[in-house]
Amino acid sequence: MLSRKLLNNSIEYLKQQGFENPDVGIVLGTGLGQLVNQIEDQKVAHYNNIPSFPLATVEFHTGKLIYGDLGGKKVVVMQGRFHLYEGYDFMDITYPIRVMHGLGIKNLLISNAAGAVNLDMKKGDLMQLDDHINLQGGSPLALKNIAEFGDRFTDMSAPYDQDMNETLKSLAQKHDITLHKGVYASVVGPQLETRAEYRMLKILGADAVGMSTVPEVIVANHLKLPVCAVSVLTDECDPENLQPISVPEIIEIAGKAEPKLVQLFKGLIESL
């Protein structure tokens, strides 16, 4: 069960490690770790040392919080996130968002790797999340004591912050970066989708599909924390010409596209 005591233990430990008054929280997705190289005066806390923190089990998620200076702001970066497909529950997945909020972040930036359901979008492109579809079969707010932490019935009519999205759009135009706008569908995984499932996602109105992000965005809205999210599109999900997925290829494509994401996030942070 989510409790103030657990949260306070985690927050106090991080403050003792020098994680003082961060302005921006950042969640890095699969294959998206280069941003940390831009952070100055780093302080690092490994998940296994933070009281009550879950542990990352996916081999390409490293499992640490990094604090420092980026774009003239204090940031705390989550390098390694948690997923339903690892056996975690929604409270575990979103616990770090509540911890970062407790440390004092005012804005949350999220990245992920996703498959392009909209075939006008190509491998290596970026997509700004304008809306989402929760297909994970649950909610991080479905807790008996959730009212202790905010409104139980959280409004989701505009889950992504319009001001940050507009800034990202302007930055993309300035730097000649392709930045689509679309709807992200979040599924459980870890298996990839069948041809029929990709057809279903398209009918539902999804432009991209992945296995993360939505629970974190729901909790950000619960906390009234402005949030934006960008997907790196690592494969094209054409049900009429579906090829087997290669995880190493996904990681490679994410790595090649990441400098564009870093440029956008750094510019956005500078503007906040």
UniProtKB/TrEMBL annotation:
UniProt entry tagged with the keyword Ubl conjugation: no
GO terms for cellular component: cytoplasm
GO biological process, one term: nucleoside metabolic process
One Pfam family per UniProt: PNP_UDP_1
Entry EC no(s): 2.4.2.1
Domain Nucleoside phosphorylase span(s) in chain numbering: 24-269
Record-level Gene Ontology MF annotations: purine-nucleoside phosphorylase activity
Pathway: Purine metabolism; purine nucleoside salvage
Function text: The purine nucleoside phosphorylases catalyze the phosphorolytic breakdown of the N-glycosidic bond in the beta-(deoxy)ribonucleoside molecules, with the formation of the corresponding free purine bases and pentose-1-phosphate.
Family in the record: Belongs to the PNP/MTAP phosphorylase family.
Name the UniProt record assigns to this protein: Purine nucleoside phosphorylase
